[in-house]
């Protein structure tokens, strides 16, 4: 499809075309600087480059063709929204734009100034008409994982239909029951939206497809334990980011190929950095496309990132749904139990996250951890102090970073990260 | 009891005596400036002055005497912790110090800087050993009403035993079930702590006692609809604040007397301000003792405050527990239903609050509303925008204030509030 036809599509989606052109231009330049400039990239990165270059083009076209054929598109930006159910109703689940400064002034008219960049971006992209994913959605599904999102969805619902799932705040038996009810309620909502019935057979397939995507991300994660690091943190983050946008089966196949290539590299002791390059685990808040600021600064500071302990990282793929269920009830129970294993900072207490971060740092042979909290993200800011303590107890150094999407603090971050990396070398 | 004996008591509670002396001195001066300076105060205010002057003295002595007799003291600072249950187990529920800057630097070592002043204060008072209520507690009971508190209780639990109740985030049937489970769980916890069994008879009495306190606060609230305003907003706030600390039966009796006096004043058309003084409703975050900043600034700016739409205000007393239950199960159901009527900003959606604020402003013949959000309080900051819209639709002007406990912005607040009041005159 030509660029001209994409413009017609964006026009049909009522995007602000001029502003969107500007966004794509910045995104392209940014991608060139941060991604294409890398030396010795994997052949499999071609897939990443293609998906990213077509993220507002071909992928949107696919969504629109699916819609023309009667399918529905559901948008979310949280790993608690059970894609298995979405798929079982033959709908498509996609992420929403939330990784760049966009429409900030407009967003601040409906949500407070002291809101994290991720939420402000998600609302801003909608208000500034810049996200073809958001505009393609037949339904947006929110959740109650933090005060900022919980209340922002109320404002968002005035802009576009927004359905909210109640994620509990503890992991008690009663909380699990609430969550099961919420999954059933979501299932009914998706059935209503699509006109399709979620059968046991379809849900089983949905569980298999999403588990397969989780497995390939697990495979990638494990391969990153190798030294020298076989893939840059930037590319690995991009893979995790793309997992929320691209077709799940295509994604799984392509990333499996990329993992094959990684295995060859590892066998040949090839890496993206020398063996003595300090290895860092990123931990904390999710980094949505194109929020590559911290990985770029970190890898420019002489370190290599070997893992992402975040929702756009391990929290998205660590746990699989049990596939042994045969009835809808059994599968819903299995889904509920899997999702309640997520170690999101929305839970109290959330001590398992401390164990998981520590174990992950060790498994990936990380020399240190950078904890990343978005400014005004209270759950992860709180936990950064606990993670620091837990890592200290294991002799793993941690640097705590609090930032947003602006580029103003890049030099300051660079100085702090370089100093941290020096202590690890 | 002499001041000397109080010092011994505070020493036994391991307070930082010198810092505590300093706090009481500031508090006393503050109280003199803001309260004792008022003209034509009610005779019933003598009770308020006494309670406040003895808040760290006589009341603490009472608590200690109760403890010596085998009773337990439970601290909380949220209207979701069901005092009926606490009382039914013969324990005493009290508020925790959270209304002044204290131990800020220490608190910021365990909770993020971007935390609201209320939470920072509650943690700071503990860490700086300045609150005899906190130090008297056999158990602190937290809840999950906001991210800031939810995660702060985790840190608090490392300082002193802290039990957390999960307050749901929606008002669905499943959420109500979760909350019922949480009330039962709390009941079991209090039984364990006290060694007492909560019987239907005792719970019935607890419900009656707490409802009686709510009724007298409702009575006070209604009397404030009179013009000229028969009581200052400062004194009314203090009554609401004291309701969390003083013995419930004494409080109810004393405030009923004060209301009798108010009725006489109203019949005689006596007031604390001229009939044409602009009448304001305060709405939003709670103001804990001694957070009198905004009421003082407001009433010094030529307005009179006629209501507090907050947890230390209407949210604490608007709804009664149904008293018709005879079995424990029936009473627990009634409790759960009553607490789930609270229009806390923790719920999504929380549209009933918009109706309630609008109705309250009208009932109290308010000329305008000041919405008060603590800096970094995301739930109430979000809702301030909605409240503004709802009030605008009814032609009621609103001023949105975001502040904390520091005195740095007093002059700026004064200027803004004076300008707002002028538009109402």
Reconstruct the topology from this structure.
2 copies of one chain form a homodimer.
Chain A: H1 3-12, H2 17-36, H3 45-53, H4 58-68, E1 73-76, H5 83-88, E2 92-95, H6 104-107, H7 117-127, H8 132-136, E3 139-143, H9 147-157, E4 162-165, H10 173-194, H11 200-223, H12 233-242, H13 248-267, E5 279-284, H14 293-300, E6 304-309, H15 314-317, H16 328-339, H17 351-363, E7 368-374, H18 378-393, E8 398-403, H19 410-424
Parallel strand pairs in A: 1-2, 1-3, 3-4, 5-6, 5-7, 7-8
What does this protein look like?
Two copies of one chain form a homodimer. Chain A has a domain at 205-320 and 344-424: Rossmann fold (3-Layer(aba) Sandwich). Chain A is α/β, with parallel strands linked by helices. In chain A, strands 2-1-3-4 form a four-stranded parallel sheet, with helices on both faces. Chain A has a four-stranded parallel sheet with strand order 6-5-7-8, sandwiched between helices. Chain A contains 19 helices and eight strands. The longest helix of chain A is centred in the middle third of the chain and has 24 residues, at 200-223. Helices cover 54% and strands 10% of the residues of chain A. The interface between A and B is large, with 43 and 43 residues. Chains A, B: Belongs to the FldB/FldC dehydratase alpha/beta subunit family.
Number of helices of chain A: 19
Secondary-structure element order of chain A, N to C:
HHHHEHEHHHEHEHHHHEHEHHHEHEH
What is the number of E strands of chain A?
8
The portion of residues assigned to helices of chain A is 40-55%
Using the alpha-carbon principal axes, give the shape of chain A: globular
Largest interface: A-B, 43 and 43 residues
Oligomer: homodimer
N→C terminal distance of chain A: 49 Å
User: Runs of chain A with pLDDT <50, length 5+?
Assistant: none
Structural class of chain A: alpha/beta
| Overall pLDDT score of chain A | 97
- CATH T-level topology of the domain at 205-320 and 344-424 in chain A: Rossmann fold
Range of strand content of chain A: 5-15%
Q: Radius of gyration of chain A from the CA trace? A: 21 Å
| CATH class bucket of the domain at 205-320 and 344-424 in chain A | Alpha Beta
Task: Give the strand order of the largest sheet of chain A, numbering strands 1, 2, ... along the chain.
Answer: 2-1-3-4
Strand count, sense and closure of the main sheet of chain A? 4 strands, parallel
Q: What's the CATH architecture of the domain at 205-320 and 344-424 in chain A?
A: 3-Layer(aba) Sandwich
InterPro entries (chains A, B): FldB/FldC_alpha/beta (IPR010327), YjiM-like (IPR047678)
Protein name (chains A, B): 2-hydroxyacyl-CoA dehydratase
Family (chains A, B): Belongs to the FldB/FldC dehydratase alpha/beta subunit family.
Pfam family, one (chains A, B): HGD-D
């Amino acid at each position: 499809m030509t660029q001209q036809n994409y413009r017609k599509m964006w026009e049909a989606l009522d995007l602000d075309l001029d502003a969107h052109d500007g966004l794509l231009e910045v995104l392209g330049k940014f991608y060139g600087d941060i991604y294409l400039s890398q030396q010795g990239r994997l052949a499999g990165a071609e897939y990443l480059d293609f998906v990213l270059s077509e993220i507002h083009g071909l992928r949107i076209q696919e969504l629109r063709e699916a819609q023309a054929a009667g399918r529905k598109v559901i948008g979310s930006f949280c790993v608690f929204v059970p894609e298995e159910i979405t798929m079982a109703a033959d709908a498509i689940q996609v992420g929403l734009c939330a990784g760049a400064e966009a429409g900030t002034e407009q967003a601040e008219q409906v949500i407070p100034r002291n809101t994290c960049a991720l939420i402000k971006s998600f609302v801003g992209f909608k208000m500034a008409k810049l996200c073809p994913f958001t505009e393609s959605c037949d339904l947006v599904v929110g959740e109650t994982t933090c005060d900022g999102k919980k209340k922002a969805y109320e404002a968002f619902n005035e802009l576009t239909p927004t359905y909210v799932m109640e994620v509990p705040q503890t992991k008690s038996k009663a909380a699990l029951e609430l969550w099961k009810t919420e999954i059933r309620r979501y299932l009914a909502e998706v059935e209503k939206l699509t006109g399709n019935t979620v059968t046991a057979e379809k849900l089983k397939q949905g569980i298999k497809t999403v588990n397969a995507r989780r497995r390939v991300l697990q495979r990638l994660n494990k391969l990153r334990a190798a030294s020298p690091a076989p893939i840059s943190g930037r590319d690995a983050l991009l893979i995790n980011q793309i997992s929320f946008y691209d077709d799940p089966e295509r994604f799984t196949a392509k990333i499996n190929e990329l993992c094959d290539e990684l295995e060859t590299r590892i066998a040949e002791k090839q890496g993206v950095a020398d063996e003595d390059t300090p290895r860092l685990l990123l931990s904390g808040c999710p980094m949505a496309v194109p929020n590559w600021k911290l990985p770029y600064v970190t890898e420019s500071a002489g370190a290599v990132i070997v893992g992402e302990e975040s929702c756009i990282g391990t929290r998205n793929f660590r746990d699989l749904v049990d596939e042994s269920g045969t009835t809808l009830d059994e599968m819903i129970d299995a889904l509920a139990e899997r999702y309640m294993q997520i170690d999101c900072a929305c839970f109290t207490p959330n001590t398992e996250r401390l164990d998981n971060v520590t174990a992950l740092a060790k498994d990936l042979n990380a020399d240190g951890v950078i904890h990343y909290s978005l400014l005004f993200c209270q759950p992860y800011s709180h936990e950064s102090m606990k993670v620091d303590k837990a890592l200290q107890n294991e002799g793993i150094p941690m640097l705590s970073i609090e930032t947003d999407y602006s580029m103003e603090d890049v030099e300051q971050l660079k100085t702090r990260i370089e100093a941290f990396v020096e202590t690890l070398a």
